[in-house]
Design goal:
By secondary structure, the chain is an all-alpha fold. It has 6 helices and no strands. The protein has helices at 2-15, 19-47, 59-82, 86-116, 125-157, 164-193. Helix 4 runs antiparallel to helix 5 (125-157). The chain is elongated. Mean pLDDT is 90; it is low at 1-12.
């Protein structure tokens, strides 16, 4: 009888939703609503006329390739961690951090290229919205880079061991990073085809 109760208790614990991951997903849902509101306002304002047509600088395509690569490297890092491959995990987490920073640098060069071509915040709402949407996304990338930095520091300073707590942390960083990756792809497609 005791064994049956223990098995039932363990199966109930395994089927519970991870509260931290659930909170993360709720936070990501609010980010989706924020960008949904921004893109809706973009469409409404564009319909009012007086819309400047401009070419999206090619550096934004490079940054897209970088962020996709960073998602792949972080996914591989998570797999390496779960498999207990310490060196692979460390290398891949550090690679992801560097790629995340490279994405931000590319965004900066993209904004400078746009500004130098005459598209700034004051000239036309098209430029203002482009900057606002991409800056808001970059702010969320900065948050992800902070989480990646903490993960990288832990990978190199703490004794390597696979624990549920650490697995959960890596999983949460992975979910968030994939989310902002997909969000960027959506935003870039939106900004290219609806500008």
């Amino acid at each position: 009888m005791m064994v049956v109760e223990q098995v039932r208790l363990e199966s109930n614990n395994n089927s519970r939703i991870n509260p931290q991951l659930f909170s993360l997903w709720m936070g990501m849902a609010s980010i989706v609503m924020l960008f949904g509101a921004l893109t809706s306002a973009y469409i409404v304002k564009q319909g009012a006329g007086n819309w400047l047509d401009f070419k999206v600088p090619s550096v934004f395509y490079i940054s897209t390739a970088i962020i996709i690569s960073s998602s792949v490297s972080l996914h591989l890092a998570r797999n390496a961690y779960r498999a207990g491959k310490e060196q692979n995990f460390k290398f891949l987490v550090l690679t992801t951090l560097v790629l995340g920073l490279a994405f931000l640098v590319c965004q900066y060069f993209g904004w400078m290229s746009l500004f130098n071509s005459g598209v700034d915040l004051k000239t036309n709402p098209a430029g203002s919205f482009f900057y606002l949407i991409t800056w808001m996304h970059a702010a969320h990338i900065v948050g992800g880079v902070g989480a990646l930095l903490a993960t990288t520091i832990n990978a190199y300073t703490l004794k390597f061991k696979v624990t549920e707590l650490r697995k959960n942390r890596v999983e949460m960083v992975l979910h968030y990073w994939h989310f902002i990756d997909v969000l960027w792809i959506y935003l870039l497609i939106f900004l290219i085809y609806l500008k």
